[in-house]
Specification:
Length: 312
């Protein structure tokens, strides 16, 4: 098990569940050191007091809050831990809500909650089963890293997961970012839906970090004194270029079908237009009109002939 990051308890009404917080994710990023390019020496950050100019060690550094200009008060970790806060050492469940009611934008880091000892096994299982059967998630409050946080508890593969969440007033409104209203045709929406259907997959297990792999190839090549990998072509369209949305959607649907081995013969999604009357239905009307004209012409010819005979 990874090293626990926090130890406390889940408070569920009068039920207390001792738990430990373990990170649910791993960092696989490639990390660089800052170096002096002339000799590859490490460049480090020195912590210097701005009053006396002396370099200070980590155990000499604490927290301070500026209450006025040139007036700062120190706050120790012991004082923070001793605050009269019910969530200081507990993840206090405050409510249960439907999972669909949670805005994903508010979800931040994720952690697993491990039962801390045998005494926690039964209440831990009780909460897990309650969450599973109710199909709901629990909203909780807890204090960590010097602040009270909002959390979300849900179940993942038999374990309770804690998601750190943003408070409602920490989420910015997107009103100023939304584009102005534009007309979108029904056929364009249908094409976008078909493209989404073609791109639908069962799970995300096939995704991997291509940037990290390319970066590792560059580092390996430089370490071995080999040429760097060839630069990939930039397939992005030029900035400001006008795009034919219908053509782009059709091309995307075709590419999606070809990538699945379905071939591109019938990939084009044609525009959906109102149905027209078939020529067979119009033909009788044309014949009727023609026959009426023919009959009228014959009648006129007969009348003309009769007038000529009477005149003679």
């Amino acid at each position: 098990m990874p090293r626990p990051l926090w130890a406390g308890a889940i408070s569920f009404g009068l039920v207390t569940i001792p738990v430990k917080i373990v990170s649910a994710t791993e960092d696989h990023d490639v990390h660089f050191h800052r170096v002096h390019l002339a000799d590859m020496g490490r460049v480090r950050t020195r912590k210097v007091c701005e009053l006396d100019g002396e370099v200070v060690s980590q155990d000499e550094i604490g927290k301070g809050y500026e209450i006025a200009k040139d007036e700062t008060v120190a706050v120790t970790d012991e004082e923070l831990e001793g605050m009269p806060l019910p969530t200081a050492k507990a993840i206090e469940i405050a409510a249960f809500v439907d999972a669909d009611s949670i805005d994903p934008v508010r979800i931040s880091d994720s952690y697993y909650l491990a039962a801390d000892g045998q005494v926690a096994a039964k209440p831990y299982t009780l909460l897990r089963k309650a969450l599973e059967r109710s199909s709901k998630v629990a909203v909780a409050k807890f204090a960590w890293h010097g602040r009270e946080r909002l959390g979300l508890l849900r179940i993942r593969e038999g374990a309770i997961v804690l998601h750190s969440m943003k408070w409602p007033d920490e989420v910015r409104s997107p009103d100023e970012l939304a584009p102005r209203e534009v007309e979108v045709g029904e056929e364009e929406i249908e094409q976008a839906l078909e493209l989404a259907e073609r791109m639908t997959i069962e799970d995300l297990s096939g995704f991997h970090d291509e940037y990290r792999e390319a970066l590792e190839d560059i580092i390996a090549a430089k370490a071995d004194g080999k040429p760097l990998p060839a630069r990939a072509e930039d397939g992005r369209q030029g900035k400001g270029k006008v795009v034919d949305l219908m053509a782009a959607l059709n091309a995307s649907v075709k590419a999606a079908k070809e990538s699945r081995g379905e071939g591109g013969e019938d990939a084009t999604v044609h525009e959906m237009r109102p149905s027209k009357k078939t020529p067979q239905k119009k033909t009788p009307a044309k014949k009727t009109a023609t026959s009426k004209k023919s009959t009228a012409s014959k009648r006129t010819t007969k009348k003309t002939a009769a007038k000529k005979r009477s005149a003679s």
